[in-house]
Protein backbone atom coordinates (compact mmCIF):
# COMPACT_ATOMS: atom_id res chain seq x y z
CA UNK A 1 0.00 0.00 0.00
CA UNK A 2 1.28 3.47 -0.90
CA UNK A 3 0.33 6.95 0.34
CA UNK A 4 0.57 9.94 -2.00
CA UNK A 5 3.17 12.53 -1.06
CA UNK A 6 4.35 15.74 -2.72
CA UNK A 7 8.10 16.28 -2.90
CA UNK A 8 9.63 19.54 -4.23
CA UNK A 9 12.02 18.94 -7.09
CA UNK A 10 15.14 20.99 -7.85
CA UNK A 11 13.11 23.54 -9.85
CA UNK A 12 10.50 23.68 -7.04
CA UNK A 13 7.86 22.00 -9.18
CA UNK A 14 5.74 19.61 -7.13
CA UNK A 15 5.81 15.98 -8.17
CA UNK A 16 3.39 13.44 -6.77
CA UNK A 17 5.15 10.26 -5.62
CA UNK A 18 4.29 7.62 -3.08
CA UNK A 19 5.65 6.80 0.37
CA UNK A 20 6.99 3.24 0.65
CA UNK A 21 5.44 1.25 3.49
CA UNK A 22 8.74 1.10 5.40
CA UNK A 23 8.93 4.90 5.52
CA UNK A 24 5.48 5.43 7.09
CA UNK A 25 4.71 5.68 10.80
CA UNK A 26 2.35 2.81 11.74
CA UNK A 27 0.39 5.21 13.98
CA UNK A 28 -0.04 8.34 11.84
CA UNK A 29 0.56 6.66 8.45
CA UNK A 30 2.58 9.78 7.55
CA UNK A 31 6.20 9.95 6.44
CA UNK A 32 8.56 9.29 9.35
CA UNK A 33 10.21 12.60 10.24
CA UNK A 34 12.14 11.43 13.30
CA UNK A 35 12.12 7.60 13.29
CA UNK A 36 12.70 5.92 16.66
CA UNK A 37 12.63 2.23 17.57
CA UNK A 38 11.11 0.48 20.59
CA UNK A 39 12.53 -2.57 22.35
CA UNK A 40 10.14 -4.71 20.24
CA UNK A 41 12.02 -3.67 17.09
CA UNK A 42 9.10 -1.64 15.72
CA UNK A 43 9.81 1.87 14.42
CA UNK A 44 7.52 4.91 14.83
CA UNK A 45 7.72 8.64 14.40
CA UNK A 46 8.96 10.17 17.67
CA UNK A 47 5.98 12.52 18.12
CA UNK A 48 3.43 9.74 17.52
CA UNK A 49 4.94 7.18 19.87
CA UNK A 50 5.60 9.77 22.59
CA UNK A 51 1.89 10.68 22.53
CA UNK A 52 1.02 6.97 22.76
CA UNK A 53 3.31 6.44 25.74
CA UNK A 54 2.32 9.65 27.52
CA UNK A 55 -1.31 8.50 27.36
CA UNK A 56 -0.33 5.68 29.73
CA UNK A 57 -0.02 2.90 27.15
CA UNK A 58 2.64 0.32 28.06
CA UNK A 59 2.47 -1.80 24.91
CA UNK A 60 3.84 -1.64 21.37
CA UNK A 61 1.02 -0.35 19.09
CA UNK A 62 1.80 -2.82 16.30
CA UNK A 63 2.66 -6.02 18.17
CA UNK A 64 0.75 -5.21 21.39
CA UNK A 65 3.66 -6.71 23.32
CA UNK A 66 4.22 -5.32 26.81
CA UNK A 67 7.20 -2.96 26.84
CA UNK A 68 9.76 -4.30 29.30
CA UNK A 69 11.87 -1.25 28.40
CA UNK A 70 9.96 1.95 27.49
CA UNK A 71 13.02 3.75 26.11
CA UNK A 72 13.12 4.79 22.44
CA UNK A 73 16.24 4.72 20.26
CA UNK A 74 16.84 6.95 17.20
CA UNK A 75 16.83 4.90 14.00
CA UNK A 76 19.67 6.55 12.09
CA UNK A 77 19.78 3.95 9.31
CA UNK A 78 16.14 4.48 8.40
CA UNK A 79 16.55 8.25 8.71
CA UNK A 80 19.38 8.05 6.16
CA UNK A 81 17.25 5.96 3.77
CA UNK A 82 14.38 8.43 3.99
CA UNK A 83 16.72 11.37 3.38
CA UNK A 84 18.11 9.58 0.33
CA UNK A 85 14.59 8.93 -0.93
CA UNK A 86 13.57 12.58 -0.47
CA UNK A 87 16.67 13.83 -2.27
CA UNK A 88 16.09 11.55 -5.24
CA UNK A 89 12.39 12.36 -5.41
CA UNK A 90 10.88 10.91 -8.59
CA UNK A 91 14.30 9.42 -9.49
CA UNK A 92 14.08 7.03 -6.53
CA UNK A 93 14.65 3.58 -8.03
CA UNK A 94 11.24 1.91 -8.42
CA UNK A 95 12.83 -1.44 -7.64
CA UNK A 96 13.58 -0.25 -4.11
CA UNK A 97 9.93 0.55 -3.43
CA UNK A 98 8.97 -2.83 -4.85
CA UNK A 99 11.54 -4.53 -2.59
CA UNK A 100 10.16 -2.79 0.50
CA UNK A 101 6.59 -3.82 -0.27
CA UNK A 102 7.59 -7.35 -1.24
CA UNK A 103 9.52 -7.92 1.99
CA UNK A 104 6.68 -6.36 3.97
CA UNK A 105 4.19 -8.74 2.35
CA UNK A 106 6.40 -11.75 3.08
CA UNK A 107 6.73 -10.67 6.70
CA UNK A 108 2.95 -10.37 6.94
CA UNK A 109 2.55 -13.87 5.47
CA UNK A 110 4.85 -15.27 8.15
CA UNK A 111 3.13 -13.50 11.02
CA UNK A 112 -0.49 -13.73 9.97
CA UNK A 113 -2.57 -16.33 11.85
CA UNK A 114 -4.53 -16.78 8.62
CA UNK A 115 -1.49 -18.00 6.64
CA UNK A 116 -1.30 -21.75 6.13
CA UNK A 117 1.89 -23.70 6.77
CA UNK A 118 2.37 -24.02 2.99
CA UNK A 119 2.11 -20.24 2.59
CA UNK A 120 4.68 -19.72 5.34
CA UNK A 121 7.05 -22.25 3.75
CA UNK A 122 6.72 -20.46 0.40
CA UNK A 123 7.49 -17.15 2.09
CA UNK A 124 10.60 -18.65 3.71
CA UNK A 125 11.77 -19.98 0.34
CA UNK A 126 11.51 -16.49 -1.13
CA UNK A 127 13.30 -14.90 1.84
CA UNK A 128 16.13 -17.37 1.45
CA UNK A 129 16.53 -16.40 -2.21
CA UNK A 130 16.45 -12.68 -1.40
CA UNK A 131 19.02 -13.02 1.37
CA UNK A 132 21.42 -14.67 -1.10
CA UNK A 133 21.44 -11.53 -3.25
CA UNK A 134 23.59 -8.99 -1.43
CA UNK A 135 22.35 -5.42 -1.71
CA UNK A 136 22.93 -2.64 0.84
CA UNK A 137 19.36 -1.39 0.41
CA UNK A 138 17.95 -4.89 0.90
CA UNK A 139 20.17 -5.33 3.94
CA UNK A 140 18.69 -2.14 5.44
CA UNK A 141 15.18 -3.41 4.72
CA UNK A 142 15.84 -6.72 6.51
CA UNK A 143 17.07 -4.72 9.50
CA UNK A 144 14.26 -2.18 9.57
CA UNK A 145 11.56 -4.82 9.14
CA UNK A 146 13.05 -6.77 12.10
CA UNK A 147 13.28 -9.95 10.06
CA UNK A 148 15.70 -11.66 12.42
CA UNK A 149 13.32 -11.10 15.35
CA UNK A 150 10.36 -12.41 13.35
CA UNK A 151 12.15 -15.59 12.29
CA UNK A 152 13.55 -16.28 15.75
CA UNK A 153 10.09 -15.91 17.28
CA UNK A 154 8.69 -18.35 14.73
CA UNK A 155 11.37 -20.94 15.56
CA UNK A 156 11.47 -20.59 19.33
CA UNK A 157 7.94 -19.52 20.22
CA UNK A 158 5.46 -20.77 17.68
CA UNK A 159 6.24 -23.37 15.04
CA UNK A 160 9.17 -25.37 16.42
CA UNK A 161 7.02 -28.52 16.32
CA UNK A 162 6.99 -28.41 12.49
CA UNK A 163 10.43 -29.75 11.62
CA UNK A 164 10.33 -28.78 7.93
CA UNK A 165 9.35 -25.23 8.84
CA UNK A 166 12.01 -25.03 11.56
CA UNK A 167 14.73 -26.30 9.21
CA UNK A 168 13.88 -23.69 6.60
CA UNK A 169 13.43 -20.85 9.10
CA UNK A 170 16.83 -21.62 10.67
CA UNK A 171 18.39 -21.70 7.22
CA UNK A 172 16.97 -18.22 6.55
CA UNK A 173 18.23 -16.99 9.93
CA UNK A 174 21.76 -18.17 9.13
CA UNK A 175 21.60 -16.38 5.77
CA UNK A 176 20.54 -13.15 7.50
CA UNK A 177 23.11 -13.20 10.32
CA UNK A 178 25.90 -11.52 8.28
CA UNK A 179 23.43 -8.85 7.11
CA UNK A 180 21.66 -7.74 10.27
CA UNK A 181 22.11 -6.54 13.84
CA UNK A 182 22.59 -9.59 16.11
CA UNK A 183 20.91 -8.16 19.21
CA UNK A 184 17.63 -10.09 18.61
CA UNK A 185 19.54 -13.34 19.27
CA UNK A 186 19.44 -12.42 22.95
CA UNK A 187 15.84 -13.60 23.12
CA UNK A 188 17.28 -17.16 23.17
CA UNK A 189 18.77 -16.74 26.66
CA UNK A 190 15.38 -16.37 28.37
CA UNK A 191 12.78 -19.04 29.07
CA UNK A 192 10.97 -20.71 27.42
CA UNK A 193 13.22 -20.04 24.41
CA UNK A 194 16.27 -21.61 26.04
CA UNK A 195 14.29 -24.77 26.80
CA UNK A 196 13.10 -24.87 23.19
CA UNK A 197 16.72 -24.63 22.02
CA UNK A 198 17.65 -27.62 24.19
CA UNK A 199 14.61 -29.56 22.96
CA UNK A 200 15.56 -28.93 19.33
CA UNK A 201 19.15 -29.99 20.02
CA UNK A 202 17.84 -33.18 21.62
CA UNK A 203 15.05 -34.15 19.24
CA UNK A 204 15.45 -32.06 16.11
CA UNK A 205 16.61 -33.38 12.75
CA UNK A 206 20.31 -33.49 11.94
CA UNK A 207 19.87 -30.38 9.80
CA UNK A 208 18.22 -28.50 12.69
CA UNK A 209 20.98 -29.50 15.13
CA UNK A 210 23.65 -28.43 12.64
CA UNK A 211 21.97 -25.07 12.05
CA UNK A 212 21.61 -24.45 15.79
CA UNK A 213 25.34 -25.10 16.24
CA UNK A 214 26.08 -22.49 13.57
CA UNK A 215 23.70 -20.13 15.38
CA UNK A 216 25.56 -20.75 18.66
CA UNK A 217 28.85 -20.15 16.83
CA UNK A 218 27.66 -16.66 15.82
CA UNK A 219 27.18 -15.61 19.47
CA UNK A 220 30.95 -15.21 19.88
CA UNK A 221 31.25 -12.80 16.96
CA UNK A 222 29.61 -9.75 18.55
CA UNK A 223 29.76 -7.91 21.85
CA UNK A 224 25.97 -7.67 21.63
CA UNK A 225 25.64 -11.42 22.19
CA UNK A 226 28.45 -11.99 24.69
CA UNK A 227 26.03 -12.55 27.57
CA UNK A 228 24.09 -15.05 25.47
CA UNK A 229 27.35 -16.87 24.73
CA UNK A 230 27.96 -17.03 28.49
CA UNK A 231 24.45 -18.36 29.21
CA UNK A 232 24.77 -21.09 26.57
CA UNK A 233 28.29 -21.98 27.69
CA UNK A 234 27.04 -22.55 31.23
CA UNK A 235 24.03 -24.63 30.23
CA UNK A 236 24.85 -28.26 30.99
CA UNK A 237 22.19 -29.56 28.61
CA UNK A 238 23.34 -27.36 25.71
CA UNK A 239 26.95 -28.49 26.14
CA UNK A 240 26.01 -32.16 26.44
CA UNK A 241 24.02 -32.03 23.19
CA UNK A 242 26.85 -30.27 21.35
CA UNK A 243 29.30 -32.90 22.64
CA UNK A 244 27.01 -35.67 21.33
CA UNK A 245 27.05 -34.01 17.92
CA UNK A 246 30.86 -33.86 17.77
CA UNK A 247 30.92 -37.64 18.24
CA UNK A 248 28.78 -38.26 15.15
CA UNK A 249 31.75 -38.57 12.82
CA UNK A 250 29.63 -40.27 10.14
CA UNK A 251 27.75 -36.95 9.91
CA UNK A 252 30.77 -34.84 8.97
CA UNK A 253 28.94 -31.51 8.60
CA UNK A 254 27.20 -31.95 11.96
CA UNK A 255 30.33 -32.94 13.87
CA UNK A 256 32.23 -29.98 12.39
CA UNK A 257 29.37 -27.66 13.33
CA UNK A 258 29.52 -29.05 16.87
CA UNK A 259 33.26 -28.32 17.07
CA UNK A 260 32.69 -24.77 15.80
CA UNK A 261 29.95 -24.19 18.38
CA UNK A 262 32.20 -25.54 21.13
CA UNK A 263 35.09 -23.33 19.99
CA UNK A 264 32.78 -20.30 20.09
CA UNK A 265 31.66 -21.08 23.65
CA UNK A 266 35.28 -21.77 24.61
CA UNK A 267 36.25 -18.24 23.50
CA UNK A 268 34.85 -17.00 26.82
CA UNK A 269 37.05 -17.95 29.75
CA UNK A 270 33.98 -17.99 32.02
CA UNK A 271 32.59 -20.93 30.00
CA UNK A 272 35.59 -23.23 30.08
CA UNK A 273 35.09 -24.96 33.42
CA UNK A 274 31.50 -25.68 32.44
CA UNK A 275 32.67 -27.09 29.09
CA UNK A 276 35.07 -29.47 30.84
CA UNK A 277 32.32 -30.65 33.20
CA UNK A 278 30.00 -31.15 30.23
CA UNK A 279 32.39 -33.54 28.50
CA UNK A 280 33.96 -31.19 25.95
CA UNK A 281 37.37 -32.88 26.14
CA UNK A 282 35.88 -36.32 25.50
CA UNK A 283 33.94 -34.89 22.55
CA UNK A 284 36.93 -33.15 20.97
CA UNK A 285 39.24 -36.16 21.37
CA UNK A 286 36.56 -38.44 19.90
CA UNK A 287 36.23 -36.01 16.98
CA UNK A 288 39.99 -35.89 16.35
CA UNK A 289 40.33 -39.66 16.65
CA UNK A 290 37.38 -40.30 14.37
CA UNK A 291 38.67 -37.93 11.70
CA UNK A 292 42.17 -39.41 11.60
CA UNK A 293 41.54 -41.63 8.60
CA UNK A 294 40.06 -38.74 6.63
CA UNK A 295 43.06 -36.51 7.36
CA UNK A 296 40.71 -33.58 8.04
CA UNK A 297 41.25 -32.95 11.74
CA UNK A 298 40.58 -29.25 12.14
CA UNK A 299 42.90 -26.81 13.91
CA UNK A 300 39.82 -25.55 15.74
CA UNK A 301 39.62 -28.82 17.68
CA UNK A 302 43.23 -28.47 18.84
CA UNK A 303 42.50 -24.86 19.76
CA UNK A 304 39.76 -26.02 22.13
CA UNK A 305 42.10 -28.45 23.87
CA UNK A 306 44.75 -25.73 24.13
CA UNK A 307 42.33 -23.45 26.02
CA UNK A 308 40.88 -26.15 28.27
CA UNK A 309 44.23 -27.50 29.50
CA UNK A 310 44.84 -24.10 31.05
CA UNK A 311 42.45 -25.38 33.71
CA UNK A 312 43.52 -28.07 36.16
CA UNK A 313 40.32 -29.96 35.38
CA UNK A 314 41.17 -29.74 31.68
CA UNK A 315 44.64 -31.23 32.20
CA UNK A 316 43.11 -34.06 34.20
CA UNK A 317 40.52 -34.59 31.46
CA UNK A 318 43.17 -35.10 28.77
CA UNK A 319 45.48 -37.22 30.96
CA UNK A 320 42.70 -39.51 32.22
CA UNK A 321 41.10 -39.98 28.80
CA UNK A 322 42.06 -43.45 27.47
CA UNK A 323 43.47 -42.01 24.25
CA UNK A 324 43.90 -38.36 25.24
CA UNK A 325 47.69 -38.07 25.33
CA UNK A 326 48.13 -40.41 22.35
CA UNK A 327 45.71 -38.32 20.25
CA UNK A 328 47.58 -35.10 21.00
CA UNK A 329 50.93 -36.80 20.18
CA UNK A 330 49.57 -37.77 16.76
CA UNK A 331 48.88 -34.10 16.10
CA UNK A 332 52.53 -33.09 16.62
CA UNK A 333 53.49 -33.87 13.03
CA UNK A 334 50.24 -34.07 11.16
CA UNK A 335 48.66 -32.10 8.32
CA UNK A 336 45.77 -30.13 9.79
CA UNK A 337 43.70 -28.59 6.98
CA UNK A 338 46.82 -27.04 5.39
CA UNK A 339 47.83 -25.63 8.77
CA UNK A 340 50.26 -28.42 9.68
CA UNK A 341 52.73 -26.40 11.69
CA UNK A 342 50.11 -24.36 13.53
CA UNK A 343 48.58 -27.62 14.77
CA UNK A 344 52.06 -28.87 15.60
CA UNK A 345 52.81 -25.81 17.70
CA UNK A 346 49.54 -26.12 19.62
CA UNK A 347 49.97 -29.87 20.15
CA UNK A 348 53.51 -29.43 21.49
CA UNK A 349 52.29 -26.62 23.75
CA UNK A 350 49.53 -28.84 25.16
CA UNK A 351 52.01 -31.66 25.82
CA UNK A 352 54.35 -29.23 27.57
CA UNK A 353 51.55 -28.27 29.95
CA UNK A 354 50.41 -31.78 30.85
CA UNK A 355 53.83 -33.49 30.83
CA UNK A 356 55.23 -30.88 33.20
CA UNK A 357 52.72 -31.88 35.88
CA UNK A 358 51.88 -35.52 35.24
CA UNK A 359 54.35 -38.41 35.14
CA UNK A 360 51.75 -40.68 33.57
CA UNK A 361 51.35 -38.19 30.71
CA UNK A 362 55.12 -38.28 30.08
CA UNK A 363 55.12 -42.08 30.02
CA UNK A 364 52.16 -42.20 27.63
CA UNK A 365 53.67 -39.55 25.37
CA UNK A 366 56.97 -41.43 25.13
CA UNK A 367 55.12 -44.69 24.54
CA UNK A 368 53.12 -43.02 21.76
CA UNK A 369 56.33 -42.00 19.96
CA UNK A 370 56.61 -38.35 20.92
CA UNK A 371 60.44 -38.37 20.83
CA UNK A 372 60.50 -39.45 17.17
CA UNK A 373 57.74 -36.95 16.31
CA UNK A 374 59.71 -34.11 17.89
CA UNK A 375 62.91 -35.03 16.04
CA UNK A 376 61.01 -35.05 12.73
CA UNK A 377 59.47 -31.70 13.63
CA UNK A 378 62.88 -30.16 14.38
CA UNK A 379 64.10 -31.21 10.91
CA UNK A 380 61.01 -29.80 9.19
CA UNK A 381 60.25 -26.33 7.79
CA UNK A 382 58.18 -25.30 10.81
CA UNK A 383 58.73 -21.89 12.38
CA UNK A 384 61.16 -20.94 15.11
CA UNK A 385 58.43 -20.71 17.73
CA UNK A 386 57.35 -24.29 17.08
CA UNK A 387 60.94 -25.53 17.16
CA UNK A 388 61.58 -23.71 20.43
CA UNK A 389 58.60 -25.44 22.03
CA UNK A 390 59.72 -28.79 20.61
CA UNK A 391 63.19 -28.36 22.18
CA UNK A 392 61.61 -27.39 25.50
CA UNK A 393 59.47 -30.53 25.46
CA UNK A 394 62.45 -32.73 24.59
CA UNK A 395 64.46 -31.19 27.41
CA UNK A 396 61.58 -31.68 29.85
CA UNK A 397 61.09 -35.33 28.90
CA UNK A 398 64.80 -36.10 29.09
CA UNK A 399 65.31 -34.39 32.44
CA UNK A 400 62.26 -36.05 33.98
CA UNK A 401 63.31 -39.40 32.52
CA UNK A 402 66.79 -39.02 34.03
CA UNK A 403 65.37 -37.96 37.41
CA UNK A 404 63.08 -40.97 37.54
CA UNK A 405 65.86 -43.32 36.42
CA UNK A 406 68.18 -42.01 39.17
CA UNK A 407 65.44 -42.48 41.78
CA UNK A 408 65.10 -46.12 40.76
CA UNK A 409 68.84 -46.63 41.13
UniProtKB/TrEMBL annotation:
Alphabetical keyword list: Transferase, Ubl conjugation pathway
Residues of the U-box domain: 18-92
PROSITE patterns the UniProt entry points to: U_BOX (PS51698)
Protein EC: 2.3.2.27
Lineage top rank: taxon: Eukaryota
Entry-linked InterPro entries: ARM-like, ARM-type_fold, ARM_PUB, PUB22/23/24-like, RING-Ubox_PUB, Ubox_domain, Znf_RING/FYVE/PHD
The UniProt record lists the keyword Transferase: yes
Associated pathway: Protein modification; protein ubiquitination
Catalytic reaction annotation: S-ubiquitinyl-[E2 ubiquitin-conjugating enzyme]-L-cysteine + [acceptor protein]-L-lysine = [E2 ubiquitin-conjugating enzyme]-L-cysteine + N(6)-ubiquitinyl-[acceptor protein]-L-lysine
A family per Pfam: U-box
Function: Functions as an E3 ubiquitin ligase.
UniProt protein name: U-box domain-containing protein
Organism for this UniProt entry: Stylosanthes scabra
Amino acid sequence: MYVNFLVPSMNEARIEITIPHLFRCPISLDLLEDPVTLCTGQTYDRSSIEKWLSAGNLTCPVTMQKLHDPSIVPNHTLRHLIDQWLQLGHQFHPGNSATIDYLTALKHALQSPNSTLDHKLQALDKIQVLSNEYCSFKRSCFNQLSYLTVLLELVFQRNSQYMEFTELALSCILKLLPLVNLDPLNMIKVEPNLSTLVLLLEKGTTKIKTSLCHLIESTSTSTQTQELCHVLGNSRKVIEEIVKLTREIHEEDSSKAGIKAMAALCSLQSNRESLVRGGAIDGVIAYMSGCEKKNVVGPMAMGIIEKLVMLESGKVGVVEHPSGVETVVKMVFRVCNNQEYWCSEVAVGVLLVICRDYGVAREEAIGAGILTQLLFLLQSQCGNKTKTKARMLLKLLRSKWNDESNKKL
